[in-house]
Amino acid sequence: MQTYNPADHMVMCRKYKQNLPKLPNPPFPNALGQEIQNTVSAKAWNEWLEHQTMLINENHLSLIDPAAKQFLHEQREKFLDNADYERPKGWTAK
């Protein structure tokens, strides 16, 4: 019988630089999804999803457009690495 180990459900989050609960499943069915699950907390990923939605809506992005996909990929990496990422017009910190 397997015992529950809380450490198995934690990850050193690359955004917050601390151990936080990890994503229960990879967000993509590929190596990138596995990497994100292993390096990004559920908190950071959920914040990215909210931010991504704002970027899609504000910029009227089509997710079938390769340029839009590339833009979102670049912004996701910047967001998760605490680099200077794009914010919607009129955005203010909470």
UniProtKB/TrEMBL annotation:
Swiss-Prot/TrEMBL GO biological process terms: cellular response to oxidative stress
InterPro entries named among the record's database cross-references: Fe_traffick_prot_YggX, Fe_traffick_prot_YggX_sf
Gene3D superfamilies: Fe(II) trafficking protein YggX (1.10.3880.10)
Signal peptide extent: none
Alphabetical UniProt keywords: Iron
GO cellular component, one term: cytosol
An example molecular function term from Gene Ontology annotations: iron ion binding
Family, per entry: Belongs to the Fe(2+)-trafficking protein family.
PANTHER family attached to this UniProt entry: FE(2+)-TRAFFICKING PROTEIN-RELATED (PTHR36965:SF1)
Its job: Could be a mediator in iron transactions between iron acquisition and iron-requiring processes, such as synthesis and/or repair of Fe-S clusters in biosynthetic enzymes.
Descriptive protein name: Probable Fe(2+)-trafficking protein
Organism: Faucicola atlantae
